[in-house]
Amino acid sequence: MNICFYAPFKHLMHPDPSGDQTIGKGLYSYLERKGHTVWTIGTFRCRWIYWKPWRFPQILLERRRAMRKVSQNRPDLWLTYHTYYKAPDIIGPAVCGHSRLPYIIFQGVYATKRRRRIKTWPGFFLNTKALRSARYVFTNKRIDLLNLKRIVPGNRLTYVTPGLATEKFSFSPSSRGEMRQSWQVGDDPVILSAAMFRSDVKTEGLALLIRACGRLHRMGRRFTLVIAGDGIMKNYLTGLAAKQIPGKTRFIGKVAREQMAAFYSAGDMFVFPGIRESLGMVFLEAQSCGIPAIAFSNGGTPEVIRHGKTGILAPAFDFGSFVSGIDLLLERPDLRQRMGQRARAYVREEHDIDRNYRIIEQTLKEIAYGQ
């Protein structure tokens, strides 16, 4: 197949990594590995575009550029990754309608509550228009599947379990030793976390984790907290850690994606609250490397962590339960090991991208070739 690919929220080469970007790259790479020609139509971001009237002329220019590329490259279909109220796809539907090109969406999101606020109503309307115009919609969240059923017929809608390239996330004994030595953690259990230090729920979640570790530190628990990431809130987080758990935190900066498996291999558990987390690919990555994950049970975290088997899901925003979950795994190395083994097996059985994304490829072939 010849596939035109577009990500209206964040293009695949954007310098700020995120779980959304990871999923998009995974989908793109999967289709390439299967021998299909995949190319991006552009890098135009639609984030809050409807409140940026000075960019409206650019929308017309981007549509014209896209039409020219479609005319020149003659794709079999258009695949948009992730359209929702905050970043609705306003390029794909127009180009596909003009070019009579099948328009497909992966990770479409629909929420009627967004039409009730002036700030989000335009985005809700534009996103709804994109979803209605799609020949087919895939989603990787069950709650989104339920919501999408309100406007997308069942024969044009499929749930796909989140997928991970598991061969890239395996435990490495040598990396474990090298990383732990460089962090100078000794024999302490290592709590890992990773997020961009943005002024939003990411920093809020890391701050909550640091406070949780502060409570455990005052209880006399032994551990070292290692945090990967960087951003504008770094000084705030390092200052908070210095007060809560002096000398027990390592801020190691942004870790390259190809080094993340080594990072996970060096830990004993991965902990991040995941406040309103859309899905949380880091939880799958950590578990794939054989360590249990701890988070709040909210958003998409129940779809990637099996409570009591591969990790612990504390009731949403229940700080005491969150602390208790970390404490349990600190005090029970045998339980950590069992959960880690189950976590590795679980990701390979339920979230292997080559298995889970076959249905996407098959459906796209049927649409492209009329099979």
Short description:
The protein has 371 residues and is an alpha/beta fold. It contains 14 helices and 12 strands. Strands 2-1-3-4-5-6 form a 6-stranded parallel sheet, sandwiched between helices.
Can you put this structure into words, describing what you see?
It contains 14 helices and twelve strands. It folds into two domains: 2-163 and 352-369, Rossmann fold; 167-350, Rossmann fold (3-Layer(aba) Sandwich). The relative contact order is 0.12. The chain has 371 residues and is of the alpha/beta class. The protein has helices at residues 19-33, 56-73, 92-99, 121-133, 142-148, 173-183, 201-218, 234-244, 260-265, 281-288, 319-331, 333-350, 353-356, 358-369; strands spanning 2-6, 37-40, 77-83, 103-108, 136-139, 157-159, 190-194, 224-228, 249-251, 269-271, 293-297, 311-315.
Q: What amount of the residues lies in strands?
A: 5-15%
Low-confidence stretches: none
Mean pLDDT across the residues is 95
CATH architecture of the largest domain: 3-Layer(aba) Sandwich
Helix content: 40-55%
> Do you know the CATH topology of the largest domain?
Rossmann fold
Quantity of strands, as a count: 12
CATH class of the largest domain: Alpha Beta
How many helix segments? 14
State the CATH superfamily name of the largest domain: Glycogen Phosphorylase B
Looking at the structure, what is the overall shape? globular
- Major beta sheet, specifics? 6 strands, parallel
Radius of gyration using CA atoms only: 22 Å
Strand order of the largest sheet: 2-1-3-4-5-6
First-last Cα distance: 13 Å
What is the domain tally?
Answer: 2
Derived from helix and strand composition plus strand pairing, the structural class reads alpha/beta
